[in-house]
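Following up on my earlier thread - several people asked me to post the actual chain instead of describing it. Fair enough. Here it is, all 93 residues.
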Amino acid sequence: MFLQFINNVLKHLDVHERAEADDGFTGCTSRVKHYVVPLKQCGRRLVLVDTPGFDNEQLASGEVVRRIATWLEKAYVPSYLGLSFVFLIHGWT
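Reply from S.P.:
Thanks for posting it. Predicted structure:
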């Protein structure tokens, strides 16, 4: 579901890259992947990050947290992206 959200944002902001979407019922994300959207009006970037879900049947929650932490460390410690905000979007059933 989040991949569909990412693709809608990318399409709305006229970015040609697309996330590989699933069928909406099963999770397909096994690694952390980011999508950078340049915000031309303000000279900033929006970074959308797709991660494995905490309800992933193939990964323990601790492993999901480790993968997210590793990505954050690689992306933000060397000031590659510059972190301003973090929003967590998680589906509720």
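Residues 6 and 12 are 10 Å apart (CA to CA). That should answer part of your original question.
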